[in-house]
Design goal:
149 residues; mainly alpha; globular; single chain
Amino acid sequence: LVSLLVSESALISSSPRLAQLDQASAFFSTGIAMVQPVCLVAIQQLLPPLFLGISIAEGTLSFSEAQMKAFSRYFLFQVLNIFLVTAIAGTIFDTVAVIVENPETAFELLGNSLPRMSSFFITYAIMKTFLGLGLELVRLVSLVQQVLR
């Protein structure tokens, strides 16, 4: 859902001012394109502790079993949401009007528009590497827990 709400095309279509800035400056265009990967990396930083808490609340007997459940859920989230939903949603939004008019060209249109999602995945990999791993080194969740105690 977050992938759909903060995608580059959704942000530009929701605000005429963002559309003007996107047309006027390459800097703003790059910034708008980076909103979706940054939001997904931020959500991914919150999910492991949340999944671990859910696993513990389920009544698992050992901490290692709770971690195994949490990481299997985290893996499924990454595969389903990040890769499949983002790739499919990004290509379908671009071609949905044409597919409705001419359904037999759906696979050809999706095949042509899917490579355009490569910029998202490159930006996502860079954001995950530099922002995500940096936040993991800071251990932001542990820091917040320690401050709240």
